[in-house]
């Protein structure tokens, strides 16, 4: 659905990652959760979880709280993601929150890094971490990937593999675990052109979207047309919109219920400062709306961070058809004068002058020319200094350029595979009454595409003739790559159907002759008669999506419902 | 090839493994290599590598050594795997081996555990390791897997994933790395019946085998018939033989040259004490014969080890059709008498008595009856004690048993995927002269099955009509799941063919009209003409093995060699 469709490069990077890579990406310093400890037992808890649980419980169960207090708890829930350790600690103290298991007092919150640490090689001196995401492996290999792609943009690289997060308190069943399968796509694109040639393939799609404004104003998600959402600027750009559409098609094709799937835009406080826009595909489950896919425009942040740390330029070029004459800003600090004026802090002043953008520099030039002096803020000193006319020369020069060199933006769809599969189990689970009406039978309505077992084969009764025919069919199913299960128990055929319905097997072949068989479809319970020879290829065609069950139903004689009744 | 063919269960266990699991498996205590340190710089080396390099270099390059000395070096190379740390250290001292980089003296050898260690959870108190193999995850889940398989033997579970080994000195390019992809099959079987119903499918295969005896007597590998090797007992049992045959078919189907593939039996000193038999599929590469797949009968060792540590029985049952009357050995130590005689060591004596097998017990019974007393070795005390007739009663009792309970044996094919792929690159690499004969062109002759890119599409010249047709073909290739690459550069078609030959792409579609195209096969360079509409489905049929290139060659008009010449 993704790799072949976009001709993506596939990579497989190691899980054990040297510290320098994760230092550059910011994970060593910032990939933390705030933790509190039970002061007597030492048991650890996530500070925000305790505060969240406290406020939620008060709101849901305490009927005595005032409207004012309720509003306060709601406000805390809304803004707590932005709390500093001190603010979080103050709230925990204020509400008198204690350790849930022992009621002991809690320590102040402190940051706990979520990466599993290890040491690489025999010396014990090279620290490493288990990767917390797969993306960094793609970023550090950007130079080679760009080369493999013939030095052309846009292109994407994709990776699927394990990611590791040493969660303080795993919870919510299989949704928050310490090791999980991530699939990530890093689509590199010219920041000046984020259009997408295939956007029209998805622009007509309509599905539940939940933009920032609707969340802030207390509305709920609503059906929007993707093309309009991009046109109105609700979604930042076409490429981001294209991937949102492709993710929608992917999830619904797997079997996710489109009424329980929404795309929620990150609020300003959720989003990294460098991100241009970010949407989560959220799937509703018994645990609430679960973030299963994140689709973010991360701008040029990641490639720049690795470039800065490694000194290796991670850039792309656009060759001009004709050389272009461009005006270039030239800032020449006069080091002698600056040294006399600022002595030990000269270096800070020089760096700040050189870092000015065109607008700032041209304003300074104008002020210096009119007044001979200007107040200038040096951020690394945290104060203003006075710059005089003889301390810096600012000019614009004309140059011929043959190409534009730039750091690509990256648009990243990132899939939590385990979470998607968990939600798929919930969405595909259903019950129906047994024939006698005395019990509810469980059915997993997995689409054939994702059902782990595609087909079961039942000899109707235990005899050699049927078992031989079963073997023939099994061999053919194997040769066409169809996973299947054989049930040769003497149990009634109805019970055997119920058993594989519960496993989510979409098709069952019942062998009741050595020349022809019945094929039953799980959801409709419809049955057709097919010759022994064709059985495997019919199942494989439907399982692989080359034909639908409707096609099969139209092409083969139906198994009479009387006979079917007899069996079930 | 494996999973569907044997209806194996598929599992995906975590990489981060709690210490207790790897304590039970023996890895915490024994998964070590002997390491020496440069005494001045602290640089670490594998002790056996240094000794091996020293002996090999002496044998290969030092023409002055005596025949006696040469024999000694050869002997050291043959037996060094069995050396204790002390013996290895003594040899290093004797030969005056120093650190290769600095010539500094070396420390004594000491064991270094090859597992990457980490800590699980926020407390820092739960040690864990990155799994050094995937197998243990299957063993600890045996109980559930057996249940999923309907409590029937034999069955197999398979897993593919990352394994981690903190090698002291990674070497040999990509062959010895610290993180790699392992694929392991654990086939559980009744130890009393290791026959295999499908053995006849592989018994006629003949390929290079290198049994223990041939290695010990200095012969080389020779072609043996697998069925005969099992019948003669060279290979321990049918199931082991079946998997050897299946591995042979797998590797050759991937494109491994059968003349550079051999199955080498482990020597007695290479094999774990519990293993019944073990064969390595070794592939010859520029680094020599490389172990790529290990196929071992590990008996019941692994399941027993986890049972003992966890106290959970990992067993299978065989229900008898009729209850069986069996004679059961009953050993009843008389604790009162033993307590009087042995006081504090009574427990050791009781355990040793109870642990006797039938033969030992019946011999003791006979001696006690004839002599009234017997000398009995208690291994946990390390000495003999005197057992008198009143201290133990030994008898045989008849019981009715309804089932037999036993620990299954496990037969384990274990695949180093990276090593296989590396060898595949070497075996598929070839060169051929360019048309003009002035250069050697590189070709990767990957079989279509494994070629990462199946097809390239070239518009013959750059024009809109051909580019549109190229897009149509590309879309169809995507819809049938065929990975492909489009080369729209204006380069000559011959150069474009050479470029994709070097990438190992088996088929190239050249678009030179908007109704029909040519398809060229990489190895023969033969070309056929196919209608635009059929192109994708023809390529997909050959790439997926549904038809051969010979079939295509027989069914479609050949592209005249004159025209082909013109192009190349």
Automatic annotation (TrEMBL), chains A, B:
<dbReference type="Pfam" id="PF03129">
    <property type="entry name" value="HGTP_anticodon"/>
</dbReference>
<dbReference type="InterPro" id="IPR002315">
    <property type="entry name" value="tRNA-synt_gly"/>
</dbReference>
<comment type="similarity">
    <text>Belongs to the class-II aminoacyl-tRNA synthetase family.</text>
</comment>
<keyword id="KW-0067">ATP-binding</keyword>
<dbReference type="Pfam" id="PF00587">
    <property type="entry name" value="tRNA-synt_2b"/>
</dbReference>
<dbReference type="InterPro" id="IPR004154">
    <property type="entry name" value="Anticodon-bd"/>
</dbReference>
<dbReference type="InterPro" id="IPR002314">
    <property type="entry name" value="aa-tRNA-synt_IIb"/>
</dbReference>
<keyword id="KW-0547">Nucleotide-binding</keyword>
<keyword id="KW-0436">Ligase</keyword>
<dbReference type="InterPro" id="IPR006195">
    <property type="entry name" value="aa-tRNA-synth_II"/>
</dbReference>
<dbReference type="InterPro" id="IPR036621">
    <property type="entry name" value="Anticodon-bd_dom_sf"/>
</dbReference>
<dbReference type="InterPro" id="IPR033731">
    <property type="entry name" value="GlyRS-like_core"/>
</dbReference>
<feature type="domain" description="Aminoacyl-transfer RNA synthetases class-II family profile">
    <location>
        <begin position="92"/>
        <end position="433"/>
    </location>
</feature>
<keyword id="KW-0030">Aminoacyl-tRNA synthetase</keyword>
<keyword id="KW-0648">Protein biosynthesis</keyword>
<dbReference type="InterPro" id="IPR045864">
    <property type="entry name" value="aa-tRNA-synth_II/BPL/LPL"/>
</dbReference>
<protein>
    <recommendedName>
        <fullName>glycine--tRNA ligase</fullName>
        <ecNumber>6.1.1.14</ecNumber>
    </recommendedName>
</protein>
<dbReference type="InterPro" id="IPR027031">
    <property type="entry name" value="Gly-tRNA_synthase/POLG2"/>
</dbReference>
């Amino acid at each position: 659905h993704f790799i072949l469709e976009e001709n993506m490069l596939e990579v497989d990077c190691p899980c054990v990652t040297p510290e320098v890579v994760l230092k550059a990406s910011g994970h060593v310093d910032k990939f933390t959760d705030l933790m509190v400890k039970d002061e007597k037992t030492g048991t650890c808890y996530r500070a925000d979880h305790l505060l969240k649980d406290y406020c939620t419980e008060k709101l849901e169960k305490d009927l005595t709280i005032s409207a004012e207090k309720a509003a306060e708890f709601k406000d805390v829930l809304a803004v707590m993601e932005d709390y500093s350790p001190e603010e979080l600690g103050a709230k925990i103290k204020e509400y008198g929150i204690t350790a849930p298991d022992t009621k002991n007092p809690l320590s102040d919150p402190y940051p706990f890094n979520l990466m599993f640490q290890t040491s690489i090689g025999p010396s014990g001196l090279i620290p490493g971490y288990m990767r917390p995401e797969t993306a960094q492996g793609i970023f550090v290999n950007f130079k080679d990937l760009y080369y493999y792609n013939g030095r052309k943009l846009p292109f994407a690289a994709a990776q699927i593999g394990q990611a590791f997060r040493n969660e303080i308190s795993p919870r919510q069943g299989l949704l928050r675990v310490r090791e999980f399968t991530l699939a990530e796509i890093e689509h590199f694109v010219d920041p000046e052109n984020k259009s997408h040639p295939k956007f029209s393939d998805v622009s007509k799609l309509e599905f539940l979207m939940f933009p920032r404004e609707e969340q802030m104003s207390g509305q709920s998600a609503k059906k929007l047309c993707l093309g309009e959402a991009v046109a109105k600027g609700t979604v930042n750009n076409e490429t981001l919109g294209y991937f949102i559409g492709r993710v929608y098609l992917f999830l619904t094709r797997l079997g996710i219920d489109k009424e329980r799937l929404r795309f929620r835009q990150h609020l300003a406080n959720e989003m990294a400062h460098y991100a241009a826009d970010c949407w989560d595909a959220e799937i509703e489950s018994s645990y609430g709306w679960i973030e299963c896919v994140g689709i973010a425009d991360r701008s040029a942040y990641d490639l720049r961070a690795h470039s800065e740390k490694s000194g290796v330029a991670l850039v792309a070029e656009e060759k001009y058809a004709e050389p272009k004459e461009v005006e270039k800003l030239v800032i020449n600090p006069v080091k002698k004068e600056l040294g006399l004026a600022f002595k030990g802090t000269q270096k800070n002043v020089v760096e700040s002058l050189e870092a000015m953008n065109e607008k700032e520099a041209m304003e300074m030039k104008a002020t210096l020319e009119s007044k001979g002096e200007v107040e200038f803020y040096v951020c690394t000193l945290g104060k203003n200094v006075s710059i005089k006319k003889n301390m810096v020369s600012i000019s614009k020069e004309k140059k011929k350029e043959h190409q534009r060199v730039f750091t690509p933006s990256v648009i990243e769809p990132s899939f939590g595979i385990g979470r998607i599969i968990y939600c798929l189990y919930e969405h595909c689970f259903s019950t129906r009454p047994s024939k006698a009406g005395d019990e509810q039978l469980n059915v997993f309505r997995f689409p054939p595409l994702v059902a782990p077992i595609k087909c079961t084969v039942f000899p109707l009764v235990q005899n050699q003739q049927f078992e031989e025919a079963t073997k023939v069919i099994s061999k053919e199913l194997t040769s066409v790559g169809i996973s299947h299960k054989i049930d040769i128990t003497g149990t009634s055929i109805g019970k055997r159907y119920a058993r594989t319905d519960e496993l989510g097997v979409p098709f069952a072949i019942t062998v009741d002759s050595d020349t022809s068989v019945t094929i039953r479809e799980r959801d409709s319970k419809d049955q057709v008669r097919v010759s022994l020879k064709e059985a495997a290829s019919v199942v494989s065609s439907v399982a692989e999506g080359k034909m639908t069950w409707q096609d099969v139903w139209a092409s083969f004689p139906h198994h009479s419902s009387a006979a079917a009744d007899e069996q079930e």
